[in-house]
Design brief:
It comes from Rhypophila decipiens. By secondary structure, the chain is of the alpha/beta class. The protein has 14 helices and 24 strands. Among the domains are: 318 residues, FAD/NAD(P)-binding domain, CATH 3.50.50.60; 52 residues, no CATH class. The strands form 6 sheets. Strands 1, 2, 10, 11, 12, 13 and 24 form a 7-stranded mixed sheet that branches. Strands 9-17-18-20-16-23 form a 6-stranded antiparallel sheet, with helices on one face. Helix 1 runs parallel beside helix 8, helix 6 packs across helix 12 and helix 12 crosses helix 13. Flavin-adenine dinucleotide binds next to strand 6, strand 11, helix 9 and helix 14. The site of flavin-adenine dinucleotide has 41 residues, from strand 6, strand 11, helix 9 and helix 14.
Amino acid sequence: TASTLPPRGAGPNSGEDVYDYIVVGSGPGGAPLATNLAKAGYSVLLLEAGDDQSGDISTQILQIGIPQFTNRWDFYVRHFADDATQLRTNHLTWQRADGSLWVGNGSAAPADATLLGIYYPRGATLGGSSVINAGATILPSRSYWDSIGRLTGDRSWNADNIRNIFKRIEDNHYLPPGTPGHGFNGYFDTNGNNGTIWERAPGTTAILGAMVSELGGDPADTISLATRDINNVSPTRDQTPGLYGLPVHANETWGRFSARDLVLSTLAVKKPNGSPRHPLTLKTHALVSKVLFDTKKPKGRGRKPRAVGVEYLEGQSLYRADPRYSPSTSPANPPVRTARARKEVILSAGVFNTPQILQLSGVGPKSELARLNIPLVLDLPGVGTHMTDNQELPIVGLAQQPFDTLPSPYDPPGLVCAFGFPGDPCIDLWRQGLGPYARASLNTNAFTLATNHSSPPGEVDVLFFAIPFPFRGYWRFDAVVNFPPDPPTTFGISMVKINPGNRAGTVKLKSTDPRDTPNINFNIFSEGATRDLAAMREGINFGRRAYEGVPAPYGPVLPTEPPLGASVQDEEQWIREQSFGHHASGTCAIGRNGDPFAVLDSKFRVRGIDGLRVVDGSAFPAAPGAFPVTSTFLLSEKASEDILRDARRRV
Ligand SMILES: Cc1cc2nc3c(=O)[nH]c(=O)nc-3n(C[C@H](O)[C@H](O)[C@H](O)COP(=O)(O)OP(=O)(O)OC[C@H]3O[C@@H](n4cnc5c(N)ncnc54)[C@H](O)[C@@H]3O)c2cc1C
């Protein structure tokens, strides 16, 4: 079949590209696993479609680490199958006849504009999205991990076990050494604010104080509460709402830690003779197009197809979501390579690309594969389904005066950072461990709420972070936006829905061309909508009451968005149409035995296939807490243990 690997010695590879394991994708799912397997002595090929951008300073400093032209893929997704609803979303991206981008809803779109969809960037570089994300590092609730154990009957999924993995990998820079539940010698740098940022940001602190007060606390405690550890081990942590610090994956001088560091540091270890200590081979510019299966041997009773390698296209920016891709300059027929795995192939290409690769390989919903005439290897209806996301929405308000941050006495007078633009004086300071980039920023606060609609009851189900601008979602910085600029008195209480009920998102192939993006539809608020909308409305009302309570000179703050005075129905419509996400999970989910939609078993093995696992954000059976990245590192560490245990058993 099309998926069969050429015999060893045949073709351009001549058998030389053979490894114990092949890992596809170097993000938080792939990198820990690839490096752990190599450190255990197994030969590993790590294939990454992007390139190594570690020389780009914006990827080194957390505060300026926004998605760049060189390190991201631009996906455009749908939130709804229904066009009329979709067109009311205010942050749709459209392409005009001259190629420029325009952002706005359908009512005002220029006549020459074609709808691309809702912009949804992903990291596509060595280290994956951990190189471009905001770095928020919050563990999900204990019940989240325990529920995977209950779902699968696999007791290794339990909160204590996962906390032990966290302790092993963390290198905490914001708590006293020895703090229970934390680690201080691992690779996963975490940092958090020490309170001083709030002393110089009186407006933001006043808003946080009003939120504390609204929950029955004393606003005089605001600064000390804003340094509280949200990843604490208290047995009541998940049921204790209120203000905390928001930790991030960053080192002691707020340099970004990412999955890239793990790969580069593993490659850098040498033996005394100068040869690599660990048998890890990294190939960037390698876009995996399919998994190859052994379909030659006669099928015995119960014999499953076996993954034996991968096929990949070689070259830079081959995927059409890469902003550097151009139909005129990108090669039409890049070289096609294969690599063989003695033991296993592990897909860690992220929530959109892992299900794309599986479907291109003939593993997925039978009807979908038949639609594109892809030879069927296994009918696995759950591939590319059950996608979930944390819905987010800002509660926007206008204060009585602008939100200023007072200068730090430690900075040169008149210092103004340019956030990575040429001549940024703060970059040189950061190199010396000084200046604003070497300190916590204003978004290092987290405020949780347990609404009357939380599930499990009593557990926090909404997380806010308070910032002096409205975070309404993503669009490209070079797009023209069709919204009026926000005045400097604008504030945003950003709301993230924890444990969302919707898992109706899908990733389906657009074509059999591996360079095409798939069709992605989150189908938001299709499932569990009553509960989620009610919880988010309760969150909005909490934010509005807090705004009213902000004292002079900043308050009272006038809530402006979602629009005031709307009926319940209209407000729900606003939430449905204007909320957004960027934490997609679950497109190849772990599930219980007997569930036809369970793509993976509890050990990350693709059900019905030997030698193939999925280890990335696709594997989560539900959204992991408010922020997925830490859980993805933990998942990868857990998978490493499972895979190494199996490898030793087979020896
Ligand atoms: C802008 C942004 C902000 C975010 N902020 C936060 C946050 O503050 N906190 C948080 O917890 N989470 C955040 N996230 C989400 C978080 O970063 C992701 O959930 C996490 O990185 C997922 O890890 P992953 O390994 O599943 O996939 P990814 O990190 O997406 O990595 C997948 C890798 O696979 C590669 N790849 C894809 N297809 C192929 C192919 N065919 N062949 C070879 N390689 C391939 C990609 O290039 C990429 O490097 C954010 C994400 C973004 C994009």
